[in-house]
C-alpha cells in the first residue's frame, strides 16, 4: 500500500498565499508562530498574575523568556530544534506577546525561505510522469497542511480559557492532520525513478520536526498552563438543540435524516439520471454548493449508477448527501495503481470539505483485485458522518485519511489494507466483508498510519461484524485473513465488542515488514465474540496489549470522538460508550 490519492485543485481559504513555492516555508513558519504564541500567552499570563515590582530589569526579562521557552519545549521530541528556533524568535529581552508573534514571523520566515528556495526538486518534474503526479499531490495537500496550521494559530491567538479543553482537542486534530499530509507528500514519491523522493524528505524534515514539536506542546498544554497557574481550565459544550442537531439546522432538513427516504422533504438539489431532478450527475450538483457554507447543503441522489469521479472540495463545507439506498444510489469509477495512478488519486469519491454527511449512499471502485491499490472513498473531512452507506473495492477500499470521522451501519468490503489512514475514526455496527484476493495474496483488514506518538488518532471497530464474502468463504483457510498490520510506526487499532467469524487467523495480526513497529504500535482486542475472537494464539508483540474496560472506554464514541457533541443523534444513532455485557444497549436514537 502507498499513501496517496487525490481530487482536483482545491480552492483555499480567502487570503491564502498563492505562491506555491512558499508552501513548505509557510508550514514551518506556522509551526514556529504557533509555538511562539503559546509562549507569548504563557509569559503574558505569568506577568499579569505575578506581583513583581517595577524594578524588574532586563535580567528578569531574559530569565522570563528563557524559562518560558524551556518550559514549553520540555515535552517535545526535538528539544534542541525547539529551543533554538524559539530563542531566535523570542530573543533574550522580549516578553511582550505581540512583539514575540511579530518576531516569530519575521525571523522564521527568513529561515525557512532558504529551505523552500531549493529548486532541484521542481527541475525533475518534466522527466518522470510519476514524479510529476507526486508533485501535484504535494502541491494540493500542502495547502491542506497550511490551513490546519493557520486554524491552530487562530485558535491559540483568540482562545478563551473557559473552553481551553475544546480548543486543545481541535488543535491536536489539526496538527495531526498537518503531520499526516506532510508524510503523505513524501510517500507520494515511492516507486518514482527520480531523486525527488529523497530531496523531498530533506525539504520536509524541518517542517515535520517543528509541527511534531508543536503537537507535543499542545498535547501537554494543560500541564504547561498549570505551571503558570492559569485558572478556569474548563470545557464549553457545543450549541445544539434538544434533538442533537446544531441550532441552525432547520426542521425540514432534520426530517431528511430521520426519514427512510427524502422524497417528501425538500433538498437543495436533486440528482437524477432520468432528468427528473435539477442535475443528472453528482458533479453538477456539487458545482452549486456555496463556498464555505455554514448551513447544510442537501443533495438528494436518486437511484442510479453514477459513473464519475467525485471531489467534495475543501470549500464545500456541510454537504449532506442522501441516496435511495447503499446499493441503489451508487457512485463508481475504476482508477487504479496498475494503470499508473498514484493511490491517493485513485479515489472514486474524495471528501475534503468539513462537516460532510452521507446517508444511504454507495461508493465503489470497480478496478478489481488485479489492479491493486484502488480507493472507493477517501475522507479528510473533519466531523464527517457516514450512515447506512456501502464502500466496495479490493485493495485500499476506504482511506480514512485525516480528522474525526464516524461510520454507523455501513458495509465495507475489500482484501488488502482495505480500511486504512490516520484519522480518529470509529466504525460502529458496521459489517466488514472480506473478499477473495489474488491467489498469491493474503487479506489484511486494517492498516492504520499514525506516525507521531502524540497524534490523537486510531482506527476503532466497535460492535461490528467481520465476515467472509460468499465467494471467499470456501478459501478462507488457504488465503488467510488478518485483522491488520502496522502501516506506520505508531499505528493504533482497536477491535471492541465485535463479532469475528472464523476467517481470521489465530495469530490475528500480520507484520508489515520484519519487526517494523511491533514495539511501538498499539493494538488491542476487547470483549469480542465469535469463532475468530479467541486471543490465546495471537502474536506476542510488545505493542499488542490487553486492556481493561476502563481503558477500552477511552476509545468509544463519547470519549474518543467527543461524539455526543457533534453527531446528530436524532439523525444518526450511536452507542456513546461500551455495550453493557448483560443488559440491552443504551444508545442515542435506536440500537
TrEMBL record:
Known catalytic reactions: [(1->4)-alpha-D-galacturonosyl methyl ester](n) + n H2O = [(1->4)-alpha-D-galacturonosyl](n) + n methanol + n H(+)
Gene Ontology terms: biological process: cell wall modification; pectin catabolic process
Name under which the protein is recorded: Pectinesterase
Matches recorded under PANTHER family: PECTINESTERASE
Subcellular location: Secreted, Cell wall
Pathway, per record: Glycan metabolism; pectin degradation; 2-dehydro-3-deoxy-D-gluconate from pectin: step 1/5
Annotated transmembrane regions: 24-45
UniProt keywords, alphabetically: Aspartyl esterase, Cell wall, Cell wall biogenesis/degradation, Disulfide bond, Glycoprotein, Hydrolase, Membrane, Secreted, Transmembrane, Transmembrane helix
InterPro entries: Invertase/methylesterase_inhib (IPR035513), Pectin_lyas_fold (IPR012334), Pectin_lyase_fold/virulence (IPR011050), Pectinesterase_Asp_AS (IPR033131), Pectinesterase_cat (IPR000070), Pectinesterase_inhib_dom (IPR006501), Pectinesterase_Tyr_AS (IPR018040)
Residue ranges annotated for the Pectinesterase inhibitor domain, each copy included: 64-217
SUPFAM superfamilies hit by this protein: Pectin lyase-like (SSF51126), Plant invertase/pectin methylesterase inhibitor (SSF101148)
General function of this protein: Acts in the modification of cell walls via demethylesterification of cell wall pectin.
Active site per UniProt: 417
Keyword field contains Oxidoreductase: no
